[in-house]
Amino acid sequence: MSYGANPYILFLILILLVIGNDPEAGNKMEVFKNIVVRMTSAVNNFRTGINSMTADFEEINVMLRNLNAPAKGDPE
To answer: Which one of 6, 15, 70, 76 is at 20 to 30 Å from 42 when CA atoms are compared?
Structure first.
């Protein structure tokens, strides 16, 4: 593992130093954390809804295929 001057690590250190000088940094980080938590929850809810809708459409597709299929014993 290299311990060279990684620009991402240097940027993170700079951000931490800037935040450390702000007396309201804790409150700002709490607000940011709440936004990220709510966004994650919204995306998970959206994904769950899309998955449910996909399952419903697949069920409708199967029902429509069964309506168009010839009955057993009927000549085609």
So the answer is: 15
Check: pTM over 0.70? Answer yes or no: no
Structure tokens at 6: 């990684």
pLDDT in tens, 29-55: 899 899 999 999 999 999 999 999 999
Q: Taking phi first (over 0 means left), then psi (-120 to 50 degrees means alpha), and beta for anything else, what does residue 73 get?
A: left
Q: What is the DSSP letter of 30?
A: H
Mean pLDDT computed over 42-70: 93
Return the structure tokens found at 34.
């709440």
d(CA 42, CA 34): 12
What's residue 18's pLDDT?
84
For residue 49, give the H/E element and its range: helix 25-68
